[in-house]
Write a structure and sequence with these properties.
about 35% helix; Arc Repressor Mutant, subunit A; about 260 residues; 2 domains; 9 helices
Amino acid sequence: MRGVFGSAASMAAAGGRAARLRYGAPSLATASKGEHSSPLAKPEQEGTRMAAPIPLFQGLPQESIDQLLSGGVRRTYPRNSVIINEGDEATSLYIVLSGRLKVYRADADGKEFILDTLSEGDHFGELALVDDEPRSASVATLEPCKLLLLSKAAFHESLARNPELAAHLIQWFAGKVRRLTDSAYVIATCDVFGRLRALLTERARPKGDLMAIEEHLTHQEIASRIGCTREMVSRIMRDLVTGGYIEIDTDHHILVRKQLPQSW
């Protein structure tokens, strides 16, 4: 990994999730009027065993995980569905079974500040369940999603019954603070190219002899995450392809061919 992206120091600086700004609110099919209330959400009657590991539950006995998930309700949501709104009362913890979502805050003019993107195995909504405050951000689907909903009561009961879960939750929050610290550093010190480089660094995973980003990222999505225009992203990506630094394969995956330059 170091051979592709440069020194360990530069990777540490870019390791956090870069600031993600999205200009213009999306056209959402339906905004939920409260948690669970979206008319587009469909309950499912399926087993609770997860296909992907859940970081929050890693290290817990499988029996405890199964017991916790057994009280959950599965729901499906179409693309562009608002799952929770900033300021909503917190009633559930959500676990992503499939699909992708964005976590964001919006200003009075509808401009969005995208805080994170989530995929299979990720979870959201735990913060408000811990401090009993309203939801601190909104969450909407980027594609059709399946979610597992755990009620606030069931979550608190599990915390009381499983001290290991409480310890994992503290550890997870500590990791999140570290990532936010790195993200703040990137925002304060990097130009647009530096933020793009940080995003590619964070998202890339080993694939054979290369590093690859297998998540399908459009230029608009990248622009929304790093706070610039789609046209600027297109120019930078085109130059990186021309210079032989990256390649876009037929599945729209970004393959990193050699060490990315420090500047554009």
